[in-house]
Amino acid sequence: MSGQTTVLVTGGAGYIGAHAVLALGEAGYQAVVIDDLSTGRREAVPADVPFVHGNVGDPACLADVISQHGIRTVMHFAGSIVVPESVQAPLDYYRNNTLNSHTLIEACVRAGVERFIFSSTAAVYGIPDVLPIDEQSPTAPINPYGRSKLMTEWMLRDAAAAYGLRFIALRYFNVAGADPKGRAGQCSKAATHLIKIACEAAVGRREEIMLFGDDYPTRDGTCIRDYVHVSDLADAHIAALRHLERGGESNIFNCGYGHGYSVREVLDTVERFAGKPLSVKVVGRRAGDPPELIAVQKRIVSELGWSPRHDNLDTIVSSALAWERKLAGVTV
Ligand SMILES: NC(=O)c1ccc[n+]([C@@H]2O[C@H](COP(=O)([O-])OP(=O)(O)OC[C@H]3O[C@@H](n4cnc5c(N)ncnc54)[C@H](O)[C@@H]3O)[C@@H](O)[C@H]2O)c1
Ligand SMILES: O=c1ccn([C@@H]2O[C@H](COP(=O)(O)OP(=O)(O)O[C@H]3O[C@H](CO)[C@@H](O)[C@H](O)[C@H]3O)[C@@H](O)[C@H]2O)c(=O)[nH]1
């Protein structure tokens, strides 16, 4: 019975992890969060969810939590996520994303954890030759962030073969939006994601938006991305968990909608919901930005039965803007 299962959620005080904790509660699971609060916020974790202020690189802490809560399933969100920072400080990224994941996987194997769900990324594909991107596309990450996450996929694959731990790696495309009920959203101190930045500008928290390049070979010259609503992504984790509980095999799944929007289309949508123009300055291309990233999502739909509820840019943008207004204390 799902009601008996307690899931250890690493990084559950962060943006995506907090939405997964809400989805777990709604699906009848108990969650326990471990988070070092390096970018997360304690308030993001509901009061009735046990919270451990700890690091996933600490094997003693992990062993305690796993045994104390009888953990058989782990969802691993904890990590460092800023691509340009990973270029500046690659060893920090390999430590936090790769070494600390190794410590966590090892603790899980030692304690007999059976199921492991991992936050991977479309960044493992690098700049793909063929679009849209399916899971068989070559993995060729172009930055330390993508490599640090791909190595964790490899560790999981090898640990699954050797020790019987079963895993699902979800390769997220561009995650955006906020909980439709306003309980969670993105809180980064130094935002880098387009929709977050545009919403900050819409509520007056930043003066202008830099648009990185309008000379790409796309329909309007700006980059195209497959934006996926964070609550749909949280649901994908529940679908992955149920698959593993049914005895399903380890696998890797893209998590996107299979279609995309350009930077200009996103900015137009934010302006429409904000009811005012944004100040947008076109600057040069940002290093390492592929012109277009679109998922083939057939595998997750057919094998996990994922059925997204918010596949709509208006829903993504309006929920992100509502959250930003809440953070800024703006009433509209
Ligand atoms: N946001 C995206 O667009 C995106 C896209 C693809 C993949 N991902 C992956 O999803 C996961 C979650 O990303 P997010 O956007 O919620 O980021 P986030 O920064 O909001 O959340 C990460 C959380 O992990 C915690 N954390 C970091 N290192 C830790 C450690 N060593 N021990 C314990 N806690 C630690 C942070 O305090 C934070 O609460 C990451 O693994 C990221 O690589 C995110
Ligand atoms: O201020 C900004 C921010 C972004 N962009 C552009 O908007 C698009 C989307 O950028 P961003 O929101 O930063 O997302 P990505 O760089 O596509 O990367 C995200 O999506 C990837 C998966 O596709 C994940 O691996 C990464 O972790 C996550 O940051 C890109 O063309 C950027 O150049 C701007 O023009 N101005």
TrEMBL record:
Main EC class the enzyme belongs to: isomerase
EC number(s) recorded for this UniProt protein: 5.1.3.2
Keyword entries, A-Z: Carbohydrate metabolism, Isomerase, NAD
Protein name: UDP-glucose 4-epimerase
NAD-dependent epimerase/dehydratase domain ranges (all copies): 7-256
Reaction catalysed by this enzyme: UDP-alpha-D-glucose = UDP-alpha-D-galactose
Signal peptide region: none
Assembly and oligomerization: Homodimer.
Highest taxon above the source species: Bacteria
One GO MF term attached to the UniProt entry: UDP-glucose 4-epimerase activity
The protein's annotated pathway: Carbohydrate metabolism; galactose metabolism
Family indicated by similarity: Belongs to the NAD(P)-dependent epimerase/dehydratase family.
Gene: galE
